[in-house]
Amino acid sequence: MKFSVCICVYDKDNALYFKEALESVINQSLLPNQIVLVVDGVINSELQEVIDNFTIESDRVGVEFDVYYLKENRGHGEARKISIEKAKYELVALMDADDLSKYDRFKEQVEAFEQNSNLSIVGGQIMEIIHNTREDISIRSVPLDNKAIRAYLKTRCPFNQVTVMFKREDVLKVGNYIDFYHNEDYYLWVRMYLEGFEFLNLPVVLVDVRINEEFFNRRGGLKYFLSEFRLQRIMYREGIISLWRFLFNSAVRLILQVVLTDSIRGFIFKKLFREKVKNG
């Protein structure tokens, strides 16, 4: 099965991490047929140099590399949407500009689709690593089978976005990515849930995700809470969750994202929502 990989980059991305992310896409046991890169606004010369060099490298290994430049920064959701629209193949895998795909990632995901043609999305687990040393820190685990994923969606986002591979036509059917302030992916999964699409997460780590001290800070603040609240309200109105679940989910998010300090929020996420990795 042929597939595309969609990546977005913007001016504040780290050039070295971006280079390593692109390299992880073509140093695979199963190469993609196409890489779509959306450049979200004006970028610095270091990032442009990475793109220029990768154009040569992708041509060497026989992978089509299509780059689209946006004149202004339009945000992650819009850039992701455009990349999916530009993808040529039935299956589309997502990547971020600073994460690292594991060697067998695409092979295992394509095999899952080949084994079950009813699947719409195949994701997996992520390993969170220290951004500069790449030391393993923790694993964000998500449920595996369709029933468990659909149940988990009622409380938290059931996919690690940077791991997913999906059927392009199914994503386009529900309207593709829609701007939703840090929750574009969750909102997409909710709409696919409503269409009855079948989900799967593989039990293995597919992507190493770089994190730093600001990683959990971005998951707080009034604006972030209001985005989450809107999404919970949509799920309630669509009959996905009960009134009690809507109130409970909203209350938990209000405490985590508005009431608590960044340091306490980070501590809770690390202790309750992550599986610590034992090094050595």
Structural notes for this entry:
- With 280 residues, the protein is of the alpha/beta class.
- The chain has 2 domains: 3-212, Spore Coat Polysaccharide Biosynthesis Protein SpsA, Chain A (Alpha-Beta Complex); 213-280, no CATH class.
- Helix content is 42%, strand content 23%.
- Strands 1, 2, 3, 4, 5, 6, 7, 8, 9 and 10 form a 10-stranded mixed beta sheet that branches.
- It is globular.
Fold topology:
Elements: E1 3-9, H1 15-26, E2 34-40, H2 45-61, E3 64-70, H3 76-86, E4 91-95, E5 100-101, H4 105-115, E6 119-130, E7 136-140, H5 146-152, E8 165-167, H6 168-173, H7 184-194, E9 198-211, H8 222-237, H9 243-259, H10 262-272, E10 275-276
Parallel strand pairs: 1-2, 1-4, 2-3, 6-9
Antiparallel strand pairs: 4-8, 5-9, 6-7, 6-8, 7-10
Short description:
The protein is α/β, with parallel strands linked by helices.
Can you tag this structure with a few keywords?
single chain; 280 residues; alpha/beta; Spore Coat Polysaccharide Biosynthesis Protein SpsA, Chain A; 2 domains; ten-stranded mixed sheet; 10 helices; 10 strands
